[in-house]
Amino acid sequence: MRYFEVRKARIEIIPMIDIMLFLLVFFAMLTLRMIPTTGHVSKLPVSSTAQIIPSPKLLLEIRSGGELFVEGKVTGTDQITALVRSSDPARLAVTIAGGDDASLQQVMTAIDAVRQGGATQIGLAARQAVR
């Protein structure tokens, strides 16, 4: 008569742990994917009038030595101009992020390359000064 015994229902917790681990990994990877769009330059100059602007459509980084990076790739000024021209320059928002070791000439070279492409919405990335 053992076949007719009523078995007590139980909740299996192992599949729930698997699902939670999967969700944790998914959100961690999603968060890591979002970090490059905020820029890689960690030593931004400080400004007391810095404002928060919408996320740029194109982030141009000036790294040490004057190298220009767009989306993590080394890019020349001619390629930046062509990239701006290929998109809609009137609606393209470009943000230039340079470390505190970037010279004014390097920043102006980047601005000239963007403006030759036709973009007019150019912003400079900075950190908010601590008051």
The tally of beta strands, per DSSP, is 7
Strand content: 15-25%
Write out the strand line-up for the largest beta sheet, numbering strands in chain order.
4-3-2-5-6
- Name the shape in a single word: elongated
The CATH class label of the largest domain is: Alpha Beta
State the major sheet: 5 strands, mixed
Tell me the distance between the termini.
80 Å
Summed up, the helix count is: 3
Which structural category do the helix and sheet elements fall into?
A: alpha/beta
Number of domains: 2
State the CATH architecture of the largest domain. 2-Layer Sandwich
CATH topology of the largest domain: Nucleotidyltransferase, domain 5
Radius of gyration: 25 Å
Helix content: 25-40%
Structure write-up:
The structure is a single chain. The protein is α/β, with parallel strands linked by helices and 131 residues long. The chain has two domains: 2-35, no CATH class; 38-128, Nucleotidyltransferase, domain 5 (2-Layer Sandwich), CATH 3.30.420.270. It contains three helices and seven strands. It has helices at 14-34, 77-86, 104-116; strands at residues 46-47, 58-62, 68-70, 73-75, 93-98, 121-124, 127-128. A five-stranded mixed beta sheet has the order 4-3-2-5-6. A two-stranded parallel sheet has the order 1-7. A hairpin with a 2-residue loop joins strand 3 and strand 4.
